[in-house]
Amino acid sequence: MELATSEVSRSYGKADPEVQEFILHTARSFGMNGMWLNETAYATLKPEQSEERIVYLSKLFKDAEYGRHLCAALAEASALKDVRLVPGLMRIAAYQVDDKDYDCRPKWIAIAALARQESPDATPLLVSLVDHGNQNTRMWARAALARMAKEDFKADKQAWNKWWISQGHNAIEPEFLKPFTPPRSK
Asked: Residue 127 in contact with residue 176, Cβ under 8 Å?
């Protein structure tokens, strides 16, 4: 927990206190079973070992069917910062099933991994998720954005869009700025 507390202070210090506490809750709740790793968990890997894992995970995330079987690999990706992981992590984080509830665990673990990647490529997707119906998903989307922006605009997609534009980027596509629509009850 000491490493998690240090990471929250250092990297998520500008996030709303609720988001900071949520990250610590994730570390406490999921660290024991390997679904949350400290960001330095693989710092001692030899370069060839790290390369092997990154290549493997990149292929896995590109081709795999969405599901809980990916969670441990997603946690591993969160401790292996590499730009090659971003497209696959985004693919999993973007997974959506309209009109029915689904398991969001792989989605939010992918978002937690994206937080550590700090890739601007993920920003529009992350903004689209700040009001998601699943608490883990929306809190991690906010955490990821706050880590990059050093600010927290909570679930205000328009404020996030203004920040994004102020960073020299084009406006986020309107589709990403629509409010989350929960699945309809049957």
From this structure: yes
